[in-house]
Specification:
0% strand, 74 residues, globular, mainly alpha, 4 helices
Length: 74
């Protein structure tokens, strides 16, 4: 899928696909597979390149990644 997205140059879909994968990895506790930009503490939803409809989901996945990394208890 990554190859097809890159080939069609629809990079907004690439971040959305990584968000979906990150959600699955966060739900199963596979923190080492969550894309780094999702778990980045200083990263903001406005800084990413995904479709607007996916940005709401980003908050849930980002929060879960931070909690799994132990950064949500500050």
């Amino acid at each position: 899928m990554r190859g097809l997205i890159s080939e069609s140059r629809d990079y907004f879909l690439l971040h959305t696909a990584e968000l979906c994968a990150g959600w699955l990895y966060a739900a199963t506790g596979q923190t080492d597979k969550i894309p780094a930009w999702i778990g980045a503490e200083a990263y903001a939803a406005k800084d990413n390149r995904m479709y607007a409809f996916a940005k709401g989901s980003w908050f849930f996945v980002h929060a879960r990644a931070l909690l799994l990394a132990g950064l949500g208890s500050r």
